[in-house]
Design brief:
The complex is a heterodimer of chains A (85) and B (248). Chain A starts with a helix and ends with a helix. Chain A has helices at residues 2-22, 43-57, 72-84. Chain A is 58% helix and 0% strand. The radius of gyration of chain B is 17 Å and the shape is globular. Helix content of chain B is 49%, strand content 15%. The chains are: A mainly alpha (85), B alpha/beta (248). Chains A and B meet through helix 2 of A and helix 4 of B. The structure holds NADP nicotinamide-adenine-dinucleotide phosphate. The site of NADP nicotinamide-adenine-dinucleotide phosphate has 30 residues of chain B, from helix 1, strand 2 and helix 7.
Amino acid sequence: MPAEKTLDTLRQELRKIVAEIGEISEEEIKDDANFIDDLGFDSMKALEVAAAIEKKYKIRISEEEIPKINSLVNVFKLLEKSLKN
Amino acid sequence: MKLQDKVAVVTGGTRGIGRAMVEALAREGAQVLFTYAHNDLLAGQIESELREQGLKAKGFKIDVRDFEKINQWKEEILIEFGGVDILINNAGIAKDKALMMMSREDWDEVIDTNLNGLFNFTRAFIVHFLKKKEGNIINISSVSGLIGLPRQVNYSASKGGMISFSKALAKEVAPYNIRVNVICPGFIDTDMTRKLREEYVRQMMPLIPLGRFGTVEEVARTALFLADETVSHYITGQVIRVDGGLTM
Ligand SMILES: NC(=O)c1ccc[n+]([C@@H]2O[C@H](COP(=O)([O-])OP(=O)(O)OC[C@H]3O[C@@H](n4cnc5c(N)ncnc54)[C@H](OP(=O)(O)O)[C@@H]3O)[C@@H](O)[C@H]2O)c1
């Protein structure tokens, strides 16, 4: 199913972005790992993830949504929602 | 032209130093978005004067004290102009009197405009700058914030606060290629200083080594220097005095 494939690719791309910004390997990032508690991100890093996603997918993440950038699952949900709109 | 394709926001851009900066930035090719609190007519006049010269400036009635409105406006202009490169926090007021005569309102109004206004605008744009990993913030404080001046405890406190705010922020955001600098004008010939009593002016004049008040253009040219990243890119967290030597 092509749609599912796209979602999978999205997930992979996201993991890559987060790994690059966090300077950690992709394998280290569990889907539900908390960026701050488990991966040692700070709020600026979360913002960098937001900026990278905005640029790559040409979407806008509002300032209120930035605190939601705290795990791969949540970022994925955010991206999915934005891409639908 | 030094600022071609740059977008600059200037608060309090309809009179005095603000207006001179709006004109100077526009002349260097920037798209200037300036704010004001009261005079719509004057704002329109500035817009059309600059338009006739082929320059780009647009006025917006936005009180620097109105955090909500500033944030709403920010969203709109980021979409309309595609981003902002330079933020100049200039809007400011003075309500000079001896502390014993100063009301709570006199205190609040000055702190709210000069210091909270700085927070409001900078807070509104900082996320945009952080995301871009680029930004240039120029804050107009005063020599009063450096040395303290009598009958200005409210104004001196607000301007001193602007300086500390700027240094703290400069350190915080330097890793993101965002620069924050302060200009401290001395006595500049504007509506603000025209209100000073003659007696006070006579007393202050001998203290200014260059022996005269400064002009708004002299402050604007210093702002241009900070706005132009090709000349000031390695300068951040600095306090530049444009005061004829008053506070050396
Ligand atoms: N003049 C000096 O000698 C001197 C010396 C040191 C520092 N400074 C500083 O330089 C800055 C500019 O001073 P200036 O002498 O050019 O003042 P000015 O001639 O009195 O002009 C002030 C400007 O700020 C705007 N403004 C005032 N309150 C505002 C508010 N709540 N929201 C938005 N805009 C507002 C005014 O617009 P409206 O007319 O619409 O209110 C006007 O455009 C101030 O921060 C001042 O403290 C001046």
